[in-house]
């Protein structure tokens, strides 16, 4: 009987995170001070982030960064996660392709986000921080941070994008169960929130807005730091436990992926599975394709511009080099709330610029169609975010069938959809639509940002 799942032991949990920047020929451009346009010093970031996280953020020389023992102990709650051969999906598609998925949905909060929440809370606690703030889109990051904060005895305030706050009430309940305070963003509790509500009273929020509010609160609260669930280098670093485990598991399966796929919002789960395999391309010259699957309604990698831009709407963050749609971009209210972000992380943006990875954009209805087929053939209801990766994997499998050639596909199932059933209700009732971003919209937003990269 052939193996369905490939399982590692707790002793196989990685002992170090992989820092891809050390192996990149072209390093990401530095973040800039918005006023002076000069590169930031690490010290400039100390007021906002825990110092150890800043050091990880700027480290360009060490390919391996040790995972603290206390963090590895907590990882044991759900890691290592299974690698699964999707025989059911292969059969449903009648494809010669072999499809594997790394199942990150088995974590206590149902997604990959806990991989970074735990170390971020750990380093804050170690520094003597008592309060932390963050933002969340779909609520996966907020729930992860709430669990990690409670474990390390930290007080947490979460700004949750208003549309998701209303669409996903049970994610809000999860955060509150873990003891976090949850505020719908934009809110009246910060200047950034009040300014946005004054201009747009019915605005349903974006991750950029929620980041502005969380950063503002962190700067005004004594002994408080800000934590972020995607985009930044140290978040990508922590997530590499996914791909490092998958490397060993693909060896157990006796295969090597031709293509590695993950959904894409700011880059956390994508980097997590892709960077360890990209290492083989960068250091060994391996022929492997890496594909980021993003929503057609928020297409920064496929239709954005590589430019310095703010990570938030109010312009509180440093200027980051990124593929961006402009920090004023207001994404459509799709159910994949975790992917509604205007920019890509600076590492991923550099890799895309250098042609080391590809990106595809996928319409909302195609993602739910893929999700439903996956649920029916594999028995797991996926998060709307992860369904973008499934849709891209199905495209690859269908291409393999068309060519009559086998190919090995690996994708990251970054979360389950058990708290997203309201979205499935709408899909099944025929009430969901596709959202098209016009070239004029993209051009207008991009025209509003200063062109620092000529």
UniProtKB/TrEMBL annotation:
Pfam families: PALP
Record-linked PROSITE patterns: TRP_SYNTHASE_BETA
Residue ranges occupied by any Tryptophan synthase beta chain-like PALP domain in the UniProt entry: 78-415
Enzyme class: lyase
Superkingdom of the source species: Bacteria
MF annotations from Gene Ontology: L-serine hydro-lyase (adding indole, L-tryptophan-forming) activity; pyridoxal phosphate binding; tryptophan synthase activity
Catalysed conversion reaction: (1S,2R)-1-C-(indol-3-yl)glycerol 3-phosphate + L-serine = D-glyceraldehyde 3-phosphate + L-tryptophan + H2O
Coiled-coil region: none
InterPro entries: Trp_synth_b-like, Trp_synth_b_CS, Trp_synth_beta/beta-like, TrpB-like_PALP, TrpB-like_PALP_sf
The protein's Enzyme Commission number: 4.2.1.20
Pathway terms, separated by semicolons: Amino-acid biosynthesis; L-tryptophan biosynthesis; L-tryptophan from chorismate: step 5/5
Keyword annotations of the record: Amino-acid biosynthesis, Aromatic amino acid biosynthesis, Lyase, Pyridoxal phosphate, Tryptophan biosynthesis
Necessary cofactors: pyridoxal 5'-phosphate
N6-(pyridoxal phosphate)lysine carried by residues: 113
Cellular component aspect of the GO annotation: cytoplasm
Family assignment from sequence similarity: Belongs to the TrpB family.
Matching HAMAP family: Trp_synth_beta
Quaternary structure and interacting proteins, as annotated: Tetramer of two alpha and two beta chains.
Function: The beta subunit is responsible for the synthesis of L-tryptophan from indole and L-serine.
Protein name per its UniProtKB record: Tryptophan synthase beta chain
């Amino acid at each position: 009987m052939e193996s369905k799942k490939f399982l590692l032991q707790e002793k196989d949990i990685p002992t170090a995170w992989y820092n891809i920047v050390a192996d990149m020929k072209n390093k990401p451009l530095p973040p800039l001070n918005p006023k002076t346009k000069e590169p930031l010093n690490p010290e400039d970031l100390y007021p906002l982030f825990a110092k150890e996280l800043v050091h990880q953020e700027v480290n360009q020389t060490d390919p391996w960064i040790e995972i603290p023992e206390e963090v590895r102990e907590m990882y044991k709650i759900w890691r290592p996660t299974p690698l699964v051969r999707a025989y059911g999906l292969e059969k449903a598609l009648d494809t010669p392709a072999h499809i594997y998925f790394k199942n990150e949905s088995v974590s206590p909060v149902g997604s990959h986000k806990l991989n970074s929440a735990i170390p971020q809370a750990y380093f804050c606690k170690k520094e003597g921080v008592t309060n932390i703030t963050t933002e969340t889109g779909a609520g996966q990051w907020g729930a992860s941070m709430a669990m990690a904060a409670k474990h390390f005895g930290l007080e947490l305030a979460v700004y949750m994008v208003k549309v998701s706050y209303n669409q996903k009430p049970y994610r809000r309940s999860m955060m509150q169960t873990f003891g976090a305070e949850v505020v719908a963003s934009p809110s009246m509790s910060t200047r950034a929130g009040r300014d946005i509500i004054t201009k747009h009273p019915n605005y349903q929020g974006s991750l950029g807005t929620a980041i502005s509010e969380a950063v503002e609160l962190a700067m005004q609260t004594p002994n408080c730091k800000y934590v972020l669930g995607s985009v930044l280098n140290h978040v990508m670093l922590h997530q590499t436990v996914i791909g490092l485990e998958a490397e060993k598991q693909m060896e157990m399966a006796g295969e090597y992926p031709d293509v590695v796929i993950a959904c894409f919002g700011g880059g956390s789960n994508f980097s997590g599975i892709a960077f360890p395999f990209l290492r083989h391309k960068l250091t060994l010259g391996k022929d492997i394709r890496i594909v980021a699957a993003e929503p057609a309604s928020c297409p920064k990698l496929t239709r954005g511009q590589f430019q310095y831009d703010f990570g938030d709407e109010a312009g509180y963050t440093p200027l980051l080099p990124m593929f961006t749609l402009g920090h004023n971009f207001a994404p459509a209210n799709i159910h994949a709330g975790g992917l509604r972000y205007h920019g890509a992380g600076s590492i991923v943006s550099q890799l895309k610029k250098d042609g080391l990875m590809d990106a595809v954009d996928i319409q909302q209805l195609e993602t739910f169609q893929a999700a439903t087929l996956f649920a029916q053939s594999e028995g797991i209801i996926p998060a709307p975010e992860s369904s973008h990766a499934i849709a891209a994997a199905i495209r690859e499998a269908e291409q393999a069938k068309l060519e009559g050639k086998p190919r090995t596909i690996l994708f990251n199932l970054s979360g389950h959809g058990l708290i997203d059933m309201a979205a499935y209700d709408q899909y099944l009732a025929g009430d969901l639509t596709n959202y098209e971003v016009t070239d004029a919209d993209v051009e207008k937003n991009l025209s509003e940002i200063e062109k620092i990269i000529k």
